[in-house]
């Protein structure tokens, strides 16, 4: 569950963002759309605690994340927020499985190997778990990102343009998959995108301007 | 897990890693060889010097006299008259005197004529058999016994001089009567006999020159020896020469004054091993310091190589760092990750350096054993010195990694991801 109130942010005196309030309950998907420069990524980084807003409240699971110091915020992010980025980033030297396990180790100091394998299996990556990420196709890499975001059962999944680098077919598959997984894991899913293909899939939408 | 990432990252860019490790290995192995060489060299020199205050020998270079008489490493400057030397050996200030007479060698191992004082002086133990008591009986050092397989009862002919290939004295055979216990001193590589063996070997040569080859037979030889023995009773050592005398003195005053008095009044000189060896070490030290500086220079370059490798990959790795941060890693964990990678490199470089240093020293030891009869122990570990070297290596790694690590620590994740 994630809620925001009157969140504003500015990079400079001339460039101010005032974001609409967000309220996304568990299992629900919120689509945030808008053209380039409307602050989509900025909003996502604010929600993920990567940026500090100039004013407003952001509450995740009844925790006001603005009250947390850096170290606590890092730990909270690891445990409660799963982020899926536009581009797939990996620790190149680690296998697909280790990349997923890394997230569980950093957040919980334990490696949920069984769970990681079952999620990867669920995402159709069973045969690729011991490969290096660079050996996978872009669509497969995106699914590894999803697995990594889900491994800690996060309360909130933040996805930044998760489908923009995928073809039509894969874009729809990934978007549905995300929304299904959010329901299954009872997470709030926020997808930030300019991808028009997704607009027809979700009815809960906000448009930034 | 951070260390696992660091470890995997180390091997993910093998070329960078390889370069840094080679440089580190080179510098660590050079330094460790130098440390071991210097320590073992000084140890060997000092232990052989124990108990010798002065060395009496022919005039010439005092260092040469010390090297030839105490360490058996150089040709002696010349011979001295036994009667003249005896006058000083019998003075009351002398606690013990060890006469040395060089003449022959066997397969490059010096045969030294001396008396039982030699074994007492250097605290040598007979492992097997007994000490020489008659002419041409010899006691061999432990290394020789092992290296050329000499046993008690074996006989051999000496070769004149100190070169392995020379005129063979095939008239008298030396007979092995004893083998010394290993002492770590020069005696391990010496063959000891009494002095008159050396004299007789060479007297015989002179007689031999006066005889025709055919006339030389065993009875003739016996006769010659008998004759000489008779002569000895009148004036035992008249005209005989020895090479040097090792002296231990009772009196500090004599230690100071003899080196001045003896050359003034005799055809001999008295040299102090401590003084000469210190001079040698000082000469040596310059070379060792130069090599050590060179090796630390290489280590510095390897530090730069690590720095460049880490710094260059920062640009591509900032996404990796951002990724770690969004999955909940703290800034400190990123700092630690970069430092660890460098520490891994340095540790591998250090271990390889120590191993290669040992291998290098082993080969050095084999060749110095052949040339100078001086062996080094490659398996000795100098915990203090090599521990310091490890700390130095680690510091190089940490210093090289500190700037890249701080860059990783202070990475702006939001900006990095937004510009991806």
From TrEMBL, chain A:
One of its GO terms (cellular component) is plasma membrane. Keywords: ATP-binding, Nucleotide-binding. It comes from the Bacteria. SUPFAM superfamilies: P-loop containing nucleoside triphosphate hydrolases. The keyword ATP-binding applies. Pfam families: ABC_tran. GO terms for molecular function: ATP binding; ATP hydrolysis activity; transmembrane transporter activity. Residues 2-206 form the ABC transporter domain. Belongs to the ABC transporter superfamily. This is Putative ABC transport system ATP-binding protein. It comes from Paenimyroides ummariense.
TrEMBL record, chain B:
Residues 204-238 are annotated as: Disordered. The keyword Cell membrane applies. InterPro entries: ABC-4/HrtB_transporter (IPR051125), ABC3_permease_C (IPR003838), MacB_PCD (IPR025857). The keyword Oxidoreductase does not apply. Keywords: Cell membrane, Membrane, Transmembrane, Transmembrane helix. Its main location: membrane. Residues 22-197 form the MacB-like periplasmic core domain. Residues 295-413 form the ABC3 transporter permease C-terminal domain. Pfam families: FtsX (PF02687), MacB_PCD (PF12704). It is found in: Cell membrane. GO terms for cellular component: plasma membrane. It is a multi-pass membrane protein. The chain crosses the membrane at residues 17-37, 294-314, 334-367, 387-406. This is Putative ABC transport system permease protein. It comes from Paenimyroides ummariense. The lineage of its organism: Bacteria, Pseudomonadati, Bacteroidota, Flavobacteriia, Flavobacteriales.
